Amino acid sequence: MKRLGIFALITVAILMVGYAQAQEKRDFFKVGVVTSLSGELAFGGTVTKRGYDMWEDAVNAAGGIDIAGKKYKVKLVYADDQSTPATAAVGTERLITQEKVDFILGPYASGPTLALAPICEKYKMPHITGSAESPLIWVKKFKYTFGTIPPVNLGPRSAIQTLAQDVTPKPQSIAILGIDDAFSKFSAEAMKAAAEKAGLKVLKYEIVPEGSDYTPSVTAIKSLKPDIFAMGNHEKAAIEMIKIAKELKFNPKAYVQHYGMSTPDFRKGLGKDMEYVYGISYWTENMKIQSSGLFKNPKEYADAIRKKFNVDPDYTEAGCTGAGLAFQEAVRAIKAAPPLTDAQKDALIGALEKLDIVTFYGRIKFATEGDFYHSNAGLESVTLQYQGGKLVEVGPPKTRVAAPKYPAPTWDKR
Question: 297 burial class (0-12, 13-18, 19+ CB within 10 angstroms)?
Fold first, then answer.
C-alpha cells in the first residue's frame, strides 16, 4: 500500500509539472503592469495606464513584436498598487510568481517604484517605469530597473531658468512649497537649487506632509509676497494649493508646478484658474521628432491618444508608451520569443543597456553609470505655460512656440 501511495504521489507530481510546463507554452508576451489604479495617486495611475494600454493596442494592431520573422502579440496583466509601496511589492511578487510575466512596466509614483525594484532584483525580473522620477531610484543602482523619464532633480530647472532669464520685469524672489514624498520633495529641492543658481532670493522653502491642510503654509507664503510661488507636488496637491491661493487673494507674478499641470485632471480640477501656470515637460506633440517605430511623430501619437481616450496626452503617457517600445526593441535585439527564460531575461538587461533609439517620444538611451544609473539620459525638459486655455512651449528659446506671459494678472482682474 505504501508503494502504491508513493507511486501515486510521484504520478501526481509529474502531472503537475507537466501541466505547469504546458501552461507556460504561449505565443504572446505576458507583461505585468504595477501602477496606482486606486488611492491618493489614482489620477496619475490612470495616466500611466493610458500610456501602457496605448502601446499594447498599437503593437497588437501591427500584428505583434517581430522576433526573427514571427510576430508575437502582447497581453498586459495589471496589479493595482493602491498608491502604497507595500501593496506595490505584493502585487509585483504575484505577477512574477503566479502570473509568470516576461517583464514588468512600473508604477506611476516613486514610492511604489522603490518598493517594487527590490522584488525585481530578487527574482531577476526586467522592469521599466514609464513615470517614476525620484533620484532615490537611480542612486541605488538596481540592475533590473530602468526608467524612460529623467530624474526629477533635472526637470524643474528649465521653468525656473525661463522665468529668471526670459521675462520682464525680472523676478527677484521665490517661495517653494513641497510635499514630503519620494518624488515631490526632490522636485522642490531642484526648484530651490535652480532658483539660487539663477540669483533669485528664496524667501521660504517648506516641505509638508501629503494630504495635510496646506492653508497655513500658503498663508505664510502670501505674507512674504514672493514674485514666484513654486510647488513641488503631484497634480492633486497643486490643485488644492492654487485654490487656496485664490481664496486668500494671493497674487504672485507666476505659479510653477511639477508634476501634473499637463494632465486632464489638472485642467478639470482648476478650469480657467489654470491660466498662466508654468510647468515642465519632456515631450509635447509639437516637437519635431521623426521615428520609424509604431508612431511616426509626436502628433500621430497625440491623435491616437485622443481617439482612444478622448484626452490630450502629457509626457507621462508618452513615457509609458516609450517604455513599452524600449522593451519591444530589446526583445527583438536578443531574438527572444515568449515565454522568456531566466537566461533571456538577463540578456534583456544587456540589450536595454545598449539601447539607443529615437521614438515619437524622443531619444531613449539608458545611463549605465553614475547617480542616474538606468534612467533615460536622452531627453531635456521644456518649459510650458497655460495660455488661452492651452499648453504652449515658452522655453528654452530653441523650443519656444510663444513668449511667456508675465506677470500674471491678479485674481480679481482675470
Answer: middle
